[in-house]
């Protein structure tokens, strides 16, 4: 009974306030100005009274409207500027149309408000429905507490609030970019920067979410502080590391800098052939290296071919070219789709085989040898930038493609090069033809991947991308 009375009183109070405002508006000199000719003698213009606010809605980051007791205004720049809506268009604007293009200077691409909870949930790991947005009834503006008739938040940090009345020269909405801790009645540079930052972050979340195999995978990776994709690997493999923050990873005596991509920071970690089985801390995660057995292969070549490997001057000169080409890589992932096999050849030497040439230990074969007919077209395994396309002594006609973030694919022994350094290639583009140039016993493609200058197993990449190396629950 007591509560009911109290709320009735409160309602009555609002009613009186509203009524008082309406009365003031009723006596407004604005109305007189439309019906009475302007006075000839200049008198100080009376200050127009505040307008009574009824409701507002921000349709997205830029477009919104505020309905007054005596009209409507709209914004197309997030509330920086407001224009009066003609009475005939008010209903249409309130319904969300007509579709107005964002004002000049407004960001083109942005995330729709309806998509925001799901995107933010990727980072928090929570359900989108559990996103709680502030609902303030008062705001603090420059030390003064003001009542709020209505508030709307797009993210837990960024929102608008509508006071019950607005001076004609004032902005109809207040804005906060810190979850309501502080409010502003102007689009200051700080407010603009914070809103742009939030928009950009949502776009980054959206872009990164799309690279994983599923939404569950995206959430598992993006809600973690550190993530190893995958967290179990064998010598010759590579692992993709993601961290929420910038930083570095030290592994096997080398330090790798995490590069920004999407909403996170990444690096490849090559698991060298000398990596010992065991567990290793990476960030707050544990990398497990498991043992792997590689087969042995015996190769017979002519004495003439065998002596090729003794021309160290030419080999060293080539190595300088290769090192220079691989010395820098685009600091982003240059591909979108999966990697493809460059040719459908017969696998004659798998990755990692220990190779003896003419009975003597030669090296580990850190690539795939795919035998195919001379002249078979070779596809780029994925999008990237050609950094070297040249005739080299041992590997013959050779191509290196940068796929970004320190990952390169290499194609050797070609009969013909169809690209040159600097070319941007797409997955499946024909970059050359199968041949047997250089140290080669017959037409085949010697194909490998380099992650931070370590040769890693090509089989990891085919028909997938490193973002899909993890499986939920593994
Ligand atoms: Zn080979």
From TrEMBL:
Gene3D superfamilies xref list: Glucose Permease (Domain IIA)
PANTHER family cross-referenced by the UniProt entry: L-ALA--D-GLU ENDOPEPTIDASE, PEPTIDASE-RELATED
Pfam families in alphabetical order: Peptidase_M23
CDD domains recorded: M23_peptidase
Protein name per its UniProtKB record: M23 family metallopeptidase
Domain of life from the UniProt record: Bacteria
UniProt keywords, alphabetically: Signal
Native source organism of the sequence: Paenibacillus whitsoniae
GO molecular function terms attached to this record: metalloendopeptidase activity
Signal sequence, renumbered to the chain: none
InterPro entries for this protein: Cell_wall_metabolism_enzyme, Dup_hybrid_motif, M23ase_b-sheet_dom
Keyword Signal: yes
M23ase beta-sheet core domain: residues covered: 364-458
């Amino acid at each position: 009974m007591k509560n009911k009375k109290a709320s009735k009183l409160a309602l009555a109070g609002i009613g009186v306030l509203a009524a008082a405002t309406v009365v003031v508006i009723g006596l407004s000199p604005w109305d007189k100005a439309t019906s009475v000719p302007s006075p000839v003698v200049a008198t100080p213009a009376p200050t127009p009274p505040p307008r009574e606010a009824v409701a507002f809605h921000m349709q997205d980051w830029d477009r919104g409207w505020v309905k007054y007791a005596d009209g409507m205004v709209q914004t197309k720049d997030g509330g920086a500027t407001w224009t009066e809506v003609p009475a005939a268009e008010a209903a249409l604007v309130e319904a969300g149309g007509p579709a107005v293009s964002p004002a000049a200077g407004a960001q083109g691409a942005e995330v729709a408000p309806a998509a925001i909870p799901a995107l933010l949930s990727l980072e928090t790991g929570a359900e989108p429905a559990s996103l709680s947005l502030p609902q303030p009834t008062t705001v603090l503006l420059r030390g003064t507490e003001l009542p709020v008739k209505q508030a709307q938040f797009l993210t837990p940090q960024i929102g608008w609030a509508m006071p019950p009345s607005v001076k004609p020269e004032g902005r109809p909405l207040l804005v906060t970019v810190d979850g309501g801790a502080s409010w502003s009645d102007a689009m200051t540079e700080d407010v603009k920067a914070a809103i742009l930052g939030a928009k950009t972050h949502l776009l980054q979340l959206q872009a990164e979410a799309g690279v994983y195999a599923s939404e569950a995978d995206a959430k598992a990776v993006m809600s973690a502080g550190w993530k190893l994709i995958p967290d179990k690997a064998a010598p010759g493999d590579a692992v993709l590391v993601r961290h929420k923050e910038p930083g570095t990873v030290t592994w096997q005596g080398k330090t790798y800098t995490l590069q920004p991509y999407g909403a996170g920071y990444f690096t490849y970690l090559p698991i060298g052939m000398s990596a010992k089985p065991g567990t290793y801390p990476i960030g707050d995660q544990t990398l497990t290296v498991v043992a792997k057995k590689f087969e042995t292969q015996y190769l017979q070549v002519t004495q003439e071919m065998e002596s090729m490997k003794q021309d160290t001057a030419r080999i060293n000169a080539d190595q300088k070219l290769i090192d220079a080409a691989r010395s820098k890589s685009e600091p982003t992932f240059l591909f979108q789709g999966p990697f493809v096999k460059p040719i459908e050849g017969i696998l004659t030497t798998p990755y990692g085989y220990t190779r003896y040439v003419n009975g003597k230990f030669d090296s580990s074969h850190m690539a795939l040898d795919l035998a195919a007919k001379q002249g078979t077209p070779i596809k780029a395994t994925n999008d990237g930038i050609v950094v070297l396309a040249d005739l080299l002594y041992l590997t013959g006609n050779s191509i290196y493609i940068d796929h970004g973030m320190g990952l390169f694919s290499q194609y050797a022994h070609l009969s013909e090069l169809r690209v040159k350094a600097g070319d941007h290639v797409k997955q499946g583009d024909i970059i050359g033809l199968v041949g047997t140039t250089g140290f080669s016993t017959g037409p085949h493609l010697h194909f490998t991947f380099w992650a931070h200058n370590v040769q890693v197993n090509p089989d990891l990449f085919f028909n997938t991308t490193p973002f899909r190396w993890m499986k939920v629950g593994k």
